[in-house]
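Standup notes
- DV: blocked on the single-chain target, sequence here:
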Amino acid sequence: MKDETMKYFDGTNYLLETIPSKQFPCYPLYTLLMLILLLPAGCATVGPDYRSPQLQVSPAWSSSLEGGLTSQADPQQLATWWAVLNDRELTDLIEKAVAGNRDLKKAVASVREARARRGLSRTDLYPTLDTSGTVTRSRGSAEAGSAATADLYSAGLDASWEIDLFGGVRRNIESKEADLAAAGESLRDTLVSLLAEVATNYVDLRTAQARLALTEASLKSLEETYDLTRWKYQAGLGDELAVQQARYNLESTRSLLPALRTSIVEAKNRLSVLTGKQPGSLGAGLDTTAPIPVIPAAVAVGIPADILRQRPDVRRAERQLASQTAQIGVATAELYPKLKLSGAIGVEALTFSGLFSSGNATSSGSSGITWRIFDAGAIRRNIEIQSALEEQYLIAYESTVLAALEEAENAILAYAQEQRRRQSLSEAARSAQEAAELAKIKYQTGLTDFGTLLEAERSLLSFRDQLAQSDGVVVTNLVKLYKALGGGWTPLIPVEQKMSINGEKS
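- DV (later): unblocked, structure below
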């Protein structure tokens, strides 16, 4: 069958376009009749068939794996990554968040909506049936010669069915199936982000508590130093300058307390909201100071290709692309004729009992073909729109993959480098502790001035505070790394209440 050159009007000019015969039905009547007769048994499906995009991903990470990171894959560790921190309070908060978070419940409702839309699209494959019943009473005019009253009873069943000859309905179902899968991935993405945010705020809470405890402990030492300078001044062994320096050092440190206490309350309030509760309603377990969680000795990060399989946002972008590809077929099907079958059966009688007589049965049937032959190019413009949207979704998918790889690379680097920084701060804090003790002894014995002791105490407080913050940053970076890898969504059954991600009951 040869290609045909067709002439059509796009609203401004007549255009000539060569259309492959396999994409557009032939115009002769006998060909159309053959299509109508043959296609119900094996209907065509127009539009492109979806193929998942194949992206080339580096076989290894560009950043070197240090600080306990390995290229091994550990799906179980990734699925329940918070367990490696071995913190009962954190695990309890994770469980509460999964059960009560409002964003997660909204995402579950979105999955139910997508499932219902998929079911709605499937109904277009089947005929529709309507039933009706009427009672009519009429009376003629006496002047016209008949004033008789007549009753007419009728009941019937009407059916109509538009045959999906060219797969427009099936392409729409395909699109809704992909939309449902995308909604499921959005749910997973919400879960991944939620668990990471809960853990991050929990680490922030414990870090602020650790810094507060260190600051309060430093205040006791600074108060002793202040008392020492006053005693020496009163005894004539020191000057007032040392007293004032000791005092501003003490009060400067004391000024850190309000901000730290505010950070603690803010973190607890945020955790309350994340778990679906009002601020301040969490248990007393968070009020008690507890250590910052300890990172595991080894963390399995896998390889870059795992990102495409694991991260929900990448999976969602791929399903959105599949949905839009199917929409091209939906638009293309409008180029082709439509076949509609309809029929009706019923009964009509002058009495109610007559409705049950077989002799009063009625029936009718019809079939019709509609084919839009002129629309000023609207259908073709819509196909172009859907194709352009598909291209946009493809670009969005590629951008999502690149952004995911960037996030993972940065998280790997940040996790390893912060451990190096923490090691240096630990050594600095240890040396500052020894320096402060020596400076205090020398000041007490008059072997050095107060400026040396002041500098040693201020350095000690600074290094201790930085070390506490670094302890928290290391754990936070680990949380960010697990989030970048897409960890945390595999144990999803409690969230969906035993509904599978594809919409069937498990």
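- Follow-up: The two ends are 49 Å apart (CA to CA).
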